[in-house]
Design a protein that fits this description.
Helices cover 51% and strands 21% of the residues. With 688 residues, it is an alpha+beta fold.
Length: 688
């Protein structure tokens, strides 16, 4: 059998034909990729007797899979790297084991170069001296990057906040609100079970509005604290309804206590469950903020957590963009649909007790829809109720006005199973001017929530000449929406977004699984912007609890430029001195150590770039420290080798013994550094 040669005329001719075909045909990339893959497989067959053959075949399989996924570029890269490894393994030099190792290192370096290429194109800009730049008409040199590669290699290092300036936000998650939500859900479940126990409600569905009113004649469920549920019975003999079955269902997460009064029973959330709710609220809030940042296309932004805080770092200098980011991040995006209660709650308020300086008024509203009559005709019923309204003070913000309004309402003793919603009041002469708030008396139970949304899309209503956000629900939400709207025809259904009643339309008929949120007043450009923002936050999901801005800091671009210059100078100077010392002191061994250290640094950058890491000033310092640690290991090894050679050992034996005896000390040092790396982030407070 004739010996195969990579330099034979047949092989050269085949590769030449493939190159011509790849250049001329439209599917050039795909043909070239398949050609590389076939070449790798063929080379793997030739190397079947070598230990690398298995890895070569695996690499070829990866390339094939990438091509099947229409990822032509990555398939080409994998095939080319495996081909390089195979070619080096066949070179007539060294023994086979070393050829395989050298081929693997070379393929790894080339793969790392592809990953680092886009980053080098962005970060490497070396200014030229005037005597060179003037005749060449080039101010600086950099690393060129073809558009084809830029479009396909999407990973890379991004400049951090301290390197290019930007904004750092620290938000605190209001975990007590998450605990209160858990309490409210459990209280609602208890109402349903007790309605069944009193034979008021039958079936597995949620009790109707009328059934809940009947249950209120038997008991009231109170929530004096965020972690406590107290059931107060009208007849203390009914406390036996909390039987073993009821207790078993709820005492997994809640502790049970009879009392404090004879007609009461108390449930308190267990501390372990409370801790779990807190942890999950922070984790979920981070995921939601991450999704919102991704929706904005901010790849350089970093989101992290510390205790109950969420830290967001956004590089850049665009103040308007910062304001938009803060607006989108802070929105809870909690969407709820709740039925209005037509009980005239505010009729009891004595207006004479309200100070005039508060600008609070109680007004009567007539013709409020109250469902259909119970007879055959099903006529529409109307009643007259009262509502409260507040007008904001001069130079007072709407949020401050709402806080003042809420404080007054808290003095009225709203029942735990009811809620006062707030809607914006606009000036009658200027519909774009917000002048205050008005109340809606609602059932606290949310009939449908935003977690049932599958689609949120901004749109334009030509009939009303305004923008809105159209919503679609999943199967559970659709069924619930149809059930609620079908059972409450001719009643108002409040749409609440972030604790603000967006609208309270009257249900005219059973509605399928869709809804619409209008953008309210304002010019069409403002409406369109608000619609897109709402679409983003609804798509990213609601926060488990509100987040409040705890701290905000801005770093100017001048600090970023100084940090880059000083950091790079320090890194280059320190690294150069260390590497020069190794070469002068250890000669050839030092040169080998320098090459290994630089290769280690290069591979670290490639790994960081592949994960889309953000480079910060501490990161640059960390890379310099890594060089020092690596040199320290090489010093230990070289000194042990010198000691072994003084005892008369051969160079090969001294090298083996030097690596073996220095290994434990090197591992000890690396473990110490690893532990320090785990501890330091717990106490870090920022990028600088």
């Amino acid at each position: 059998m004739a010996k195969f040669s990579f330099t034979s005329p047949l092989v050269r001719g085949a590769w030449f034909i493939l190159a011509v075909v790849a250049t001329l045909l439209p599917q050039a990339q795909q043909l070239l990729a398949w050609a590389l893959m076939v070449a790798v497989v063929a080379t793997g067959i030739l190397l079947v007797r070598l230990r690398a053959s298995t890895v070569l075949f695996v690499g070829a399989a990866i390339a094939v899979r990438r091509l099947q996924l229409d990822d032509i570029f990555s398939g080409m890269v994998v095939a080319a790297l495996i081909g390089v490894w195979a070619l080096v393994s066949r070179l007539p030099m060294m023994d086979s084991a070393w050829r395989i190792k050298v081929g693997f290192v070379l393929a790894t370096v080339l793969g790392a170069a592809v990953v680092v290429w886009p980053t080098a194109n962005v970060l490497v800009h070396i200014p030229l001296p005037a005597f060179i730049a003037t005749p060449l008409k080039i101010k600086e040199i950099g690393v060129p990057l073809p558009t084809y590669v830029r479009d396909r290699v999407t990973v890379g290092l991004a400049k951090g906040l301290d390197l290019q300036g930007g904004m750092r936000l620290v938000y605190q998650v209001e975990v007590e609100e998450a605990i209160a939500d858990k309490r409210a859900n459990v209280a609602e479940e208890m109402r349903q079970d007790l309605a069944i126990a009193f034979e008021i409600h039958k079936g597995t569905g949620r009790p109707s509005r009328e059934e809940m009113l009947k249950l209120e004649e038997k008991l009231r469920i109170q929530t004096p604290e965020s972690a406590i549920i107290r059931i107060k019975f009208v007849n203390k003999g009914d406390r036996v309804k909390i039987d073993d079955r009821f207790q078993k269902k709820f005492t997994t997460d809640w502790s049970f206590l009879l009392g404090p009064a004879e007609d009461e029973a108390t449930f308190k959330i267990r501390s372990a469950v409370e801790t779990d709710i807190r942890d999950r609220a922070v984790a979920q809030a981070k995921e939601t903020v991450n999704r919102r940042v991704d929706e904005l296309g901010l790849r350089e932004a970093a989101v992290a957590t510390r205790d109950e805080d969420i830290i967001v770092e956004v590089p850049g200098q665009n103040k308007q963009a910062f304001d938009d980011i803060k607006e989108i991040i802070r929105r809870t995006a909690r969407l709820e649909f709740k039925m209005e209660d037509t009980f005239d709650f505010f009729a009891k308020v004595d207006k004479t007790t309200i100070p005039e300086t508060e600008r609070i008024d109680v007004q009567q509203q007539g013709s409020i829809p109250d469902g259909l009559s119970g007879d055959k005709d099903k006529k529409e019923k109307f009643i007259s109720t009262h509502y409260a309204q507040i007008t904001k003070l001069d130079n007072e913000t709407m949020e401050a006005c709402k806080v003042r309004f809420r404080a007054w309402i808290d003095t009225l003793g709203v029942p735990d199973d009811r809620q006062v919603g707030f809607g914006i009041v606009y000036d009658s002469e200027d519909i774009n001017k917000e002048i205050g708030w008005r109340t809606f008396y609602l059932f606290r139970r949310a009939e449908v929530t935003g977690e049932h949304i599958t689609k949120a899309e901004a749109g334009y209503n030509q009939d009303k000449a305004s923008y809105n956000v159209n919503l679609e629900f999943n199967q559970v939400g659709t069924e619930r929406f149809e059930e609620v709207t079908g059972a409450n025809i001719h009643r108002r259904f409040a749409i609440i977004l972030d604790d603000k009643v967006d609208s309270a339309p009257v249900i005219q008929s059973k509605i399928a699984g869709h809804a619409q949120i209008s953008m309210g007043a304002g010019d069409q450009e403002t409406q369109a912007t608000n619609a897109r923002k709402l679409e983003r936050v609804l798509r990213s999901g609601a926060l488990p609890a509100q987040i409040s801005l705890k701290a905000e800091s801005t770093i100017g671009p001048s600090l970023g430029r100084d940090a880059i210059d000083q950091g790079l100078k320090g890194l280059l100077a320190g690294s150069a001195l260390v590497l020069l010392f190794m070469f002068i002191y250890y000669r050839t061994a030092g040169l080998v150590a320098d090459a290994a250290v630089l290769l280690n640094l290069f591979l670290q950058l490639a790994i960081l770039a592949s994960f889309g890491a953000t480079m910060t000033l501490p990161g640059i310092a960390g890379l310099a420290l890594t060089i020092g640690i690596a040199i320290d290991a090489n010093v230990l090894i070289n000194e042990r080798i010198r000691e072994e050679m003084r005892t008369g050992r051969s160079i090969r034996a001294a090298i083996d013994a030097g690596y073996e005896k220095a290994f434990t000390a090197i591992i000890d040092g690396h473990v110490t550094v690893f532990i320090s790396g785990l501890i330091l982030p717990q106490y870090g407070s920022g990028p600088v």
